[in-house]
Amino acid sequence: PMLPVVAGPDATRNQILAYSIVLVPLAVVPAFIGLGGWAYGAASIVLGAVFLALAINVWRIREGREADQACKRLFWFSILYLYVCSPCCSQRARFGDYSHEADVRHGVAR
Fold first, then answer.
1. Is the CB of residue 23 less than 8 Å from the CB of residue 44?
2. Which residue pairs from 92-96 have beta carbons closer than 8 angstroms and sit at least 24 positions apart in sequence?
3. In the list 29, 66, 79, 92, which could disulfide-bond 37, CB 3.0-4.6 Å?
């Protein structure tokens, strides 16, 4: 909440977009390195695409009521994003991945 006051709305929008562009691909990485399962991978790809689209919308619409609505949509979606992606990341721990390939991937000897 302080960045718009200190840096201004344009700088804030630029940072929102820049950090979103970095977040989306990095959020998918755990699925590919074995830390997140298939549910996390799917959720992070779909939700990341929506998150990035909303961030682009915030960056693009700069004035008026539409700009306020775009910011609020991104804010509320960011809460949903965390709420959905966090438990999906631990789905592997809950359901387990007991295949031999998972053992090899994680360095467990049988």
1. no
2. 92/34, 92/35, 92/36, 92/37, 92/40, 95/37
3. 92
Q: Which helix (H) or strand (E) holds 45?
A: helix 38-60
Q: How many CA atoms lie within 13 A of 54 on its CB side?
A: 20
How many C-beta neighbours within 10 Å does residue 101 have?
9
Instruction: Give me the average pLDDT of each 10-residue run along the chain (110 residues).
Output: 84 95 92 82 92 97 95 95 78 51 55
Residue with tokens 């302080």: 2
How far, in Å, CA of 70 to CA of 105, rounded?
42
CA 74 to chain centre: 12
Six token digits for residue 108: 């467990």
